[in-house]
Protein: Phosphoribosyl-AMP cyclohydrolase
Amino acid sequence: MTSTPQPSRPSSLDAEIAARLKRSADGLVPAIAQQYDTGEVLMLGWMDDEALHRTLTTGRCTYWSRSRGEYWVKGDTSGHVQYVKSVALDCDADTVLVKVDQVGAACHTGAHTCFDADVLLKDGDSGVPAADQ
Amino acid sequence: MTSTPQPSRPSSLDAEIAARLKRSADGLVPAIAQQYDTGEVLMLGWMDDEALHRTLTTGRCTYWSRSRGEYWVKGDTSGHVQYVKSVALDCDADTVLVKVDQVGAACHTGAHTCFDADVLLKDGDSGVPAADQ
Structure:
């Protein structure tokens, strides 16, 4: 994409990071939370510039809630805190990967990760001949 | 969110899956590609209903390219194919996690993953006192 929406809200995010961040039309980028030691993908949230800034500077994962329209510090309500271990942007700066140490369940359903319950395909059983794999 | 945009394009996706898929305003959902055995997060792409259908049924990861406005079978140009091992939706059906076996580099830059080059924070060095972690 040749242009990117500007931040929707005021932010203290480092100007150089903000300059290369490529936001969706709603001013957000998807943020993948991954357990730092096991590699499990825990959940995907959304960050605006300020949520990324807070994630980088407070040691706690902070997201922008699209449904509630407010910042959301993971674990503030549930106790299921995500302590930030590392943060990276992807090659075109439109996705964040946060490696975290997750306290308790990552999912609001109580499941360990948000991807445990709704498995569409397992064990590569898509009918593709083994010779093609 | 109480409603979700409908598919933008015709699709053969299973009707029950399509009924619970919660798409962004552009009709897409983010899709995380993770190496199935090492747990590395390789990249994030975008899928519409038909890209998800093809990913579920062909054994190859298929995305919707937002910049080119077309389907994109990972590896068709580069040879860096992603063979599908499993596919899951998250708890609110607005994100896809695809575990894959990645051939070669996942990133178009030649890097192993798309998250290798632009690290914003390492080793939890956010200045949070150790006692709080």
About this structure: The beta strands of chain B are 29-35, 41-47, 62-65, 70-73, 82-89, 96-102, 118-121. Residues 1-104 of chain B form a domain with the Ubiquitin-like (UB roll) fold (CATH 3.10.20.810). The first helix of chain B runs from residue 15 to 20.
